[in-house]
Amino acid sequence: MRYGSGKRRTVSLMLMALACGCTTLGEYVHNGFKVGPNYTRPPAPTSPAWIDSADPRVRSDVPAPGPWWTVFGDPLLDSLIQTAHDQNLDFKTAGTRVLDALAQRNISAGNLLPQSQTALGAYAHAQISRNFGLPFPNTFNIWATGFNASWELDYIGRLRRTIEAADANLNASIEDCHNVLVLLLAETASNYVRLRTLQQRLAYVRRNVEIQKQSLELAELRFDKGVATEIDVSQARANLAQTEALIPPLETGLRQANNQLCLLLGLPPHPLEVYQKSGPIPTAPAEVAVGIPADLLRRRPDVRQAERLMAAQAARIGIAEADLYPRLILFGFIGYTADTFAKLFDASSYTGLIAPIFQWNILNYGRLLNNIRANRARFQGQVFTYQQTVLRAAREAEDALVAFLRSQQQAQQLEKSVANYQRTVEVVMDQYRNGIADFNRVFTTEAALVQQQDQLAEVRGNIALNLIALYRALGGGWEVHFGKGATPPQHAPNFTAFSAEEKSPQPAEPIPAPRRLPPNPADAEAPPASEHSPPRPGRPLLIGTSKHTVMEEGSPAGEPPSRP
């Protein structure tokens, strides 16, 4: 009877633990004997189509290319991209963060095994007061050697939830590395375009300086012959000086663009080949392949990183809930003990000990429940951050797309303007040479030509820069790390196991709704997601003022990642 009563008391305590927690017994079994919610990706607001999808230059039926820089057809740009990929130190630093996260994940996985294993050897000499009246000698020695271990039985899923959080953090660090690569390649290409644009602007200015020197010589010649006034000469000199004043800032910008490229390439500042040899501004194609807006969820590393951080925080809710339940720990010792060293390894000195330990945090004054609430609030914040990241990605893509399309139109008009001004300068110079027109018209048209050519060079560069910004907004470029024949940076991990298809979020099967925490006055449901947000099956997780979903374990996006 005594044994039966004790067993019933133990069962009662376990049922009380489940009752005071946030996970029902059915959910506990369904979750794989883990407390806390399973995770699924919440809906994100995405548009069904791009605003300019009707424009024939926008190809929504074709996904954005991975190595997007090849659309420029510039071998030197391809070489710079490869060098930046192989040598950039920020990218290597991001790779070390992945290695750190991988090691932390393996530490968490190792905790599933006995958490403490110790080989020990000890000697103790003790002398006890004779006034105790003990029936054994008051002086004795203890020699001991052996092996002890302690193992927390993860029946509640705390350690496994820790591994889930570590897996998600590992994936988040990989996406952070991908994001660094996206920004690196886009910044390298952008600096290359800026350098080429500055070279073109400088060429235009120097060409106009030569034209204006000829105008000055003609004005001085006519003044010497007495057929022109000194005002013509002064205007010609002022125009030439104003144009020559444009050269120093352009040369400064050219040098700074070269130095920035050196930094991106992991090199000390020195004149690069692209700096020493002028070349044309990279020509962007008229059409652009952008896919559909929903592709941003799959392609953008920062979106995927925000989603993985959200998954890690969902797992921490389970870790916090596990503190509501008792822990069972097994402690054991195997070895030899004796009162003298000579008898330590005798067969009769063999000692074995096993000691189950029951530990339960009680009288915590609401701290455990409030810790759960805090983790749920953090999860809610991660959800909002993820959805905001999706919105920001869409805005960046739309901004770059409209800028790319409109800059093409601007360039077409400026090309016409420059051609007309060039012809006007030729005609006006002939008229001035023949005494038909005054120099004021020459001064005006030459100054306007300088301005129009400089603006044309800038706009041509902006076309390429806007296309680069669009591909960066679409999350293009990180796939090069998996491309056949691509050379991974030294000292950085190989992430081949993490392809876009494998990491693409997938819907989960519906699972029962979990029990909520004790009533909280702040708890309330928020309005539904955007009408463009596809419905996602999954059990609702009510947190604070919002209703989200959590992923069922076993779905593709919820699987622990493969190790790189």
Structure notes:
This protein is an alpha+beta fold and 564 residues long. It folds into 2 domains: 2-112 and 154-325 and 360-558, Outer membrane efflux proteins (OEP) (Up-down Bundle); 116-153 and 327-359, Outer membrane efflux proteins (OEP) (Single Sheet). It has helices at 2-20, 25-30, 75-87, 89-110, 158-224, 230-244, 247-264, 273-276, 296-299, 301-322, 367-433, 439-473, 500-503, and strands at residues 58-59, 116-127, 139-153, 288-289, 327-338, 350-359, 539-543, 546-550. The strands form 3 sheets. It has a 4-stranded antiparallel β-sheet, with no helix packed on it. Strands 1-4 form a two-stranded parallel ribbon. A two-stranded antiparallel ribbon has the order 7-8. Helix 5 (158-224) runs antiparallel to helix 12 (439-473). It is elongated. The two termini are 57 Å apart. The model is unreliable at 1-7, 9-20 and 482-564 (pLDDT under 50).
